[in-house]
Amino acid sequence: MEKLNQSRAPLMEALEGFKAMRVVPFDVPGHKRGKGNPELTAFLGKDCLNVDVNSMKPLDNLCHPVSVIKEAEELAAEAFGAAHAFFMVGGTTSGVQSMVLTACGKGDKLILPRNVHRSVINAMILCGAIPIYVNPEMDEHLGISLGMSLAGVKDAVAAHPDAKAILVNNPTYYGICSNIAEITKIAHDHGMLLLADEAHGTHFYFGKNLPIPAMRAGADMAAVSMHKSGGSLTQSSLLLAGPNMNSNYVRQVINLTQTTSGSYLLLSSLDISRRNLALRGRKIFDHVQNLTAYARDEINRIGDYYAYGKELVNGDTVFDFDATKLSVNTLGIGLAGIEVYDILRDEYDIQMEFGDLGNVLAYVSVGDRERDMERLVSALADIRRRYQRDKADLMKQEYIAPQVEISPQEAFYAPKVSLPIDQTCGKICSEFVMCYPPGIPILAPGERITKDILNYIRYAGEKGCSLTGPEDLNIQWLNVIKGV
Amino acid sequence: MSLTFTEMHTPRVGLSIAVQRQLCCEQSEFQRIEIFESEEFGRFLTLDGYMMCTEKDEFIYHEMMVHVPMAVNPSARRVLVIGGGDGGAVRELCRYPSVGHIDLVEIDRRVVELCAQHLPAISSALNDPRVTMHFQDGLRFVRGCENEYDLILVDSTDPFGPGEGLFTREFYGHCFKALNADGIMVNQNESPFYEDDVKAMQRAHQRIAATFPVCRLYQAHIPSYPSGHWMFGFASKGLHPIRNMQTESWNSLHLATRYYNTNLHRASFALPTYVEELMKDVE
Question: I need a labelling partner for A157 at 20 to 30 A (CA). Which of A24, A347, A397, B257 fits?
């Protein structure tokens, strides 16, 4: 196939051309290039409102791309080494859901690690698939879940040879990678698809000395958050597909849930960001890795903090580590990660990506400068000076194996009753409970509630983690399946 | 032809100075450095278009930054100057025989080099053997210091651009750690007049007050700065800027000054009511 010109940005070019035509709009959106909403135009800028337009012949249609969106998607596919790329405007959530809905129907099994994003389980509520969880091993010291071991995957495949697909986080929020190439082989040997959640892995496709990206590992589909390390606008994302997928069918599945009014702000941001990564990605991610390496060394030199890196790699549950991720374990100074997260924001004006019980994570990207890294390092040093205390009373984040009793879909739609949370032990939960961020479920619909789980929910709440999911926003009551 | 330098003090107010010539204009790794020559203000240095110092009124700024803390602790020996690449603060410090060592930490080597070349009256003491220059981020330098200094002068630019790290909570925390028990920190604390400057002044004061047990503001009149009304912060672990002032001992040094004197020292801590209220709002 002829090589495409990655310095083109067909969607952006079409919008530029469209602006120059000065077409009189008798179509939606009703703000009519901003003229009808001066306050919004003053706030967002005229240039922005000018390209907030509707699908039309010169600008193609996201639901059925035949011209400039198609060309932009082909460029993206080439840049990412995929057979097909789909522009998504509902976040990586919609990419993940489309992958699961493509692979699984009602009653089909999906093998996946527990530390998946909630969007994966939500997709199973939609399609009626059954989760087969593989225990992601825990790092006892750090209190974080790792990747899937090959043995764990093989056991799950042997026990459920009828499963339709295996889903892999590549990487996790913390930058941990499973052996995706080997897991792909296992999947294909058993006639299963390999789906990759690459919400945190866009840069794998462009930087050097980074873990292998899913498409290169032979995966069938990958959901890639361009708006994270790729630099596009929030909510824009890519779904990639390998050569064995029927792209027309994938498009049909996407169209089940995706808007018919795809935003051209989001779409053009994907096009422009793809061009930037294709032309300059290597240099950009070299810079990011240098910044992160500097901060990691300096933070480890402060003492009592642990900013972890490639030394975690163990050949299995940590098959590789994404060195652009800057995760810092704070238990050594006697503070929970979430406490350090709050202090950084409230007293130092530094907003971190998230804090959990043991760790804080800084999202380092193309937009960061050396002096910003220095501020983070300095603030951590100052927090240690001011707040360091005995580390005795901290509980670590334990993996609690879920007991799946019925499918997420069945549980979600079953008759239910609301009970005070301390009276729910032994019942089957019909809703989610999760610590947010990073949004990994403690309980999902269809799972049995245990004493360990209730203790964990109480403790995480006391430590200031934001708990979300249940109908009752204060998490005093939980919905459980009626009569069970 | 007429050549004019204008700095906008707000989007609607500016100060213009007729310029005879531009002596240098250079984009360094960090900022645009320019030095101009004018009849009214003599030579002056700007960074990214913001006025840093003029030959005509720099003595006010540098005398007030240095002599106020030195009159409280005239025996200060080890001094850290952060920013101040023009050398004005170092020049005033070098007049004290008791000062034995000065670390000057300036992020931009080119500022020092160009000031040495074009502003010799200000930078004259940078060659003093007591001065050690460090070209690095002040935030990073002071992070590594503990219980080392009698005095820290924060001679920074504004809280945006390369100097923004010098207005942060973590920076003031490091300074606290770097000072010994009698240590004093003095910082340029922006202006109380125009709205954006007020916010910067309040934020800096709030953060210093949260870090140091003693934290007071004092003022000076600096015509080339926005509104001309400028604030300095005096912070310490215990020494009070007026009660612990060593008036006789400072006067016995017989340092010739043009702005500073010990009467003005006391008076400079008496603030207009509206400024006191701005401070109270954040203390």
Answer: A397
